[in-house]
Amino acid sequence: MVSVTYRATREDSSVFLVSIQPRMPAPIRLRELIRTIRTARTQAEEREMIQKECAAIRSSFREEDNTYRCRNVAKLLYMHMLGYPAHFGQLECLKLIASQKFTDKRIGYLGAMLLLDERQDVHLLMTNCIKNDLNHSTQFVQGLALCTLGCMGSSEMCRDLAGEVEKLLKTSNSYLRKKAALSAVHVIRKVPELMEMFLPATKNLLNEKNHGVLHTSVVLLTEMCERSPDMLAHFRKLVPQLVRILKNLIMSGYSPEHDVSGISDPFLQVRILRLLRILGRNDDDSSEAMNDILAQVATNTETSKNVGNAILYETVLTIMDIKSESGLRVLAINILGRFLLNNDKNIRQVSLYTLVFGYVALTSLLKTVQTDHNAVQRHRSTIVDCLKDLDVSIKRRAMELSFALVNGNNIRGMMKELLYFLDSCDPEFKADCASGVFHAAEKYAPSKRWHIDTIMRVLTTAGSYVRDDAVPNLIQLITNSVEMHGYTVQRLYKALIDDISQQPLIQVSSWCIGEYGDLLVSGKCEEEEPIQVTEDEVLDVLEGILVSNLSSTVTRGYSLTAIMKLSTRFASTVNRIKKVVLVYGSSIDVELQQRAVEYNALFKKYDHMRPALLERMPVMEKTSTNGPTEIVQTNGETEPSILETKHMPNVPQPANQANDLLDLLGGNDVISVIQTAPPTKLVSAGGELLDLLGDLSLSGSVPAPGPQVSISQPPFLLDGLASQPLFNDVAAGIPPMIAYNKNGLKIDFTFERSNTNPNIAVITMHASNSTEAEMTEFVFQAAVPKTFQLQLLSPSSNIVPALNAGTVTQIIKVLNPQKQQLRMRVKLTYTHKGSSLQDLAEVNNFPPQSWQ
């Protein structure tokens, strides 16, 4: 097609110029485009068709062709649905929205919902168009605007248009009210502070007979209750009305308009049940008001169709979440038990999921009656059978629920089933299953031997999948079971001979052989028939671990340490052990090399201390808090629960040869020190951690030591750090001081006051070196009288640069609850020009502001 244009010239009106301009052909229809694309045999052919059509659409957009803009945008949306880029049609959607034709607006709003979102500034250009359309005289145009706002409106757009939405929410038109309610939900999600604007409009929403309005109204009320506790309290008065609506749905006869598989409007029923669950949570009156209707729904709903199962599932969730009656909870659990027998795997999975979390909720409630636990336990065999299901999701839910069902009465039977499952399950389940077995055995073990056998069974079955703390926990269990040492070391030795691929098992076995190797060789075992093992055979096994390619660095470290410990247990193989340790002194593994070098030094320089250092480990107390207990329901049983902490009793530290290594200066003065670095011993309220500096003179005006301050935990922990700084940035009025200045080494103290405790003085030590050579291996130590508490944090470095090129800093925190004059003795150790130096000094001239 061509267009002919005639134009007269100024010189001669009889002469005409003819301009011939080509025009774009009419674009193909959307139906033809779909038919053409479906004929493509390959993806490359399809891409070629799409690119050709996109080029034609772009050309039409450049020509500002208003006739076919709607058709082109529709085709562009289809391409977008196929996954091809269509962003170049965004502005064309806005032009269609501004059109006065309904067909154009419909495609324009659809394109805006698909191609635009709130992250793009282009969508703000349509705010005015939506506002105009919300006030349009045609309800269908208003509906389009409401749908678009509810789909992709940004917070700015929602603020601007919330008034129009609230106005339409009050209209009598059911078509607009249901769309306005959904738009209001989106507005509340984007701008929660506008929630109160819609509160007056919600008064009459539940009186509507139209199911569409009822459905969207319940969605709106649910959103408001979930986001605001005040709204939740306000809408609890609607529980009787919601119960009446739900009852009418159940009792109403056949209604073709709302019937789905013989059930009246199941979608509305599910929404009402969800809202009732929110309203009845932690509220006795609301829960009481809905108990009868929940029982009615649970007993009258047809379960032969999936629609009925969906309603029953929501009913069960509601019963489990509110303060329902005991009989109603039993009914809910029985419904889930029937779900477990259903052939539909989806139904079985959701029932297991609900039982898991419902049972956990039951056991966490102190007032839950025993009947609820027994109701779940009745379905235990069905749940255990689900462990054999082929569906992965069902097996995982069944495993989680099985561990939740374990208690002291069924621990043996349940562990038998779970250990069998651990043997045959996929690797993805082994880690979680092993952790669950460890936790259940620790909590409900009937005897220590059963506990040890169970953990060893897990290590031999899934040793590579156990959690990191399994090894130290089992070592602690074995150590504390004194009467089981001979039995345990014999069992572990047999397991070690059979398999050395399970690293945690090897580590525990090596540790036990190193500790109790003498019991293994002696052949004394009352629990089972003893085995005859020689010292050389035990060493052969441990040396085999050292050279095995399957052994990790940590495992080799366990084995080498076990061999070293056997030097004090075995009498005839000490020379062989020396040779093994000497060989690994040149190992390429740094960890093994360091251990071997230290052990060699122990043989050569400190052989007289070797028996004391390698003596058998004492019973290890598990770290726990002590205090009053209360009775708490746990899987149907009662057991004590820890409520609060109390002080550990003072335990005197024995003085022996090994302690001489820690007694730096001698003396008897008791000094309490709390360290942030890994401590060697626990601090007791009046005990002695380390006698760092010996007798500290307290003559003169220093008063006699007062009673020890009682604290439930170390006062220097970072309590309150989230709410305020640990100490003041500026120590107002506390001048710095020079604590030490000798041989080029200068120690300065600056002071700050703790914000968390006014009785804590925070002292920063600054060490500087004015000599020409740096001071290495610098160690600063301090002690105070026993009426104080002292904490030394880690230093910034152990090298003091020469010529005052830098300083080493260290934080010292002193608790002075009695406001006594502060005195401190410091010990300085460092290496300077190849010589090791050590000096002591007393610091008695602290500024009064630092301790008053």
TrEMBL record:
<dbReference type="InterPro" id="IPR017107">
    <property type="entry name" value="AP1_complex_gsu"/>
</dbReference>
<dbReference type="InterPro" id="IPR013041">
    <property type="entry name" value="Clathrin_app_Ig-like_sf"/>
</dbReference>
<dbReference type="InterPro" id="IPR050840">
    <property type="entry name" value="Adaptor_Complx_Large_Subunit"/>
</dbReference>
<dbReference type="Pfam" id="PF01602">
    <property type="entry name" value="Adaptin_N"/>
</dbReference>
<keyword id="KW-0472">Membrane</keyword>
<dbReference type="InterPro" id="IPR008152">
    <property type="entry name" value="Clathrin_a/b/g-adaptin_app_Ig"/>
</dbReference>
<dbReference type="Pfam" id="PF02883">
    <property type="entry name" value="Alpha_adaptinC2"/>
</dbReference>
<comment type="similarity">
    <text>Belongs to the adaptor complexes large subunit family.</text>
</comment>
<dbReference type="InterPro" id="IPR011989">
    <property type="entry name" value="ARM-like"/>
</dbReference>
<dbReference type="InterPro" id="IPR016024">
    <property type="entry name" value="ARM-type_fold"/>
</dbReference>
<keyword id="KW-0968">Cytoplasmic vesicle</keyword>
<protein>
    <recommendedName>
        <fullName>AP-1 complex subunit gamma</fullName>
    </recommendedName>
</protein>
<keyword id="KW-0813">Transport</keyword>
<dbReference type="InterPro" id="IPR002553">
    <property type="entry name" value="Clathrin/coatomer_adapt-like_N"/>
</dbReference>
<dbReference type="InterPro" id="IPR008153">
    <property type="entry name" value="GAE_dom"/>
</dbReference>
<keyword id="KW-0333">Golgi apparatus</keyword>
<feature type="domain" description="GAE">
    <location>
        <begin position="732"/>
        <end position="847"/>
    </location>
</feature>
<keyword id="KW-0653">Protein transport</keyword>
